[in-house]
Write a structure and sequence with these properties.
Bound molecules: flavin mononucleotide
Number of strands: 10
CATH topology: Pnp Oxidase, Chain A
Shape: globular
Radius of gyration: 16 Å
CATH architecture: Roll
Oligomer: single chain
Number of domains: 1
CATH class: Mainly Beta
Order of helices and strands: EHEEEEHEHHEEEHE
Largest sheet: 8 strands, antiparallel
Helix content: 10-25%
Number of helices: 5
Structural class: alpha+beta
Strand content: 35-45%
């Protein structure tokens, strides 16, 4: 992990989550030193559930990253300054199935003490322990117009809840 990163309690974060996730975007990353994958995400949340500080992330079934998040016990969320937007665009438009998109992005993989992948250039990292893996179901939508607009092909997002077990910022 980057030595310039300082641990911070998730509750002490000053960032506005609407800005942080929705506008700044993040990378969802999971795997090991041998093999990991990452993808850009701008849908998600932070909050409190089951008496724990948690994140909520949503991954479509087509994403290569999905299998990594499903297999691993942990994943990380990494946030970056504006200068890395092109890298996040790239990691959010190419699939790790089709080649080494991390190398193409120019970002530098680093690993937490627990061995979870994140990136040297990140200004905020959350290390998350997976608590819940589910999928939205057609019959559970209160707003069926929204459902049919977002999911015309029935490719409902996987929903993950992760406990924030480590949080660092620069
Ligand atoms: C700004 C932005 C936000 C995105 N948000 C999400 C998201 O929240 N969930 C999701 O499943 N895909 C999201 N994507 C799409 C994935 O990042 C994209 O499909 C990526 O290429 C998947 O890579 P992979 O196949 O290597 O996992 C987003 C893409 C961009 C550019």
């Amino acid at each position: 992990m980057n030595a310039t990163m300082k641990p911070i309690a998730p509750e002490a974060l000053a960032a506005n989550p609407f800005e942080l996730i929705g506008k700044q975007w993040m990378l969802i990353t999971a795997g090991s030193k041998e093999q990991f994958n990452t993808m850009t995400a701008s849908w998600g949340g932070v909050g409190v559930l089951w008496n724990k500080p948690v994140v909520y992330i949503f991954i479509r079934p087509q994403r290569y990253t999905l299998g990594f998040v499903q297999r691993e016990s942990h994943f990380t969320l990494s946030f970056f300054g504006e200068e890395y937007r092109p890298a996040l665009q790239l990691l959010g438009s190419r699939s790790g199935r089709d080649g080494d998109k991390v190398a193409a992005s120019g970002l530098t993989p680093v690993f937490t003490e627990m061995g979870n992948p994140t990136f040297e250039e990140a200004t905020l990292v959350m290390e998350c322990r997976k608590l819940f893996d589910g999928t939205f179901r057609a019959e559970d939508f209160a707003d069926v117009e929204l459902r049919d607009k977002i999911y015309p092909n029935g490719d409902f997002h996987h929903v993950f809840v992760g406990e924030i077990v480590g949080c660092w910022e620069k």
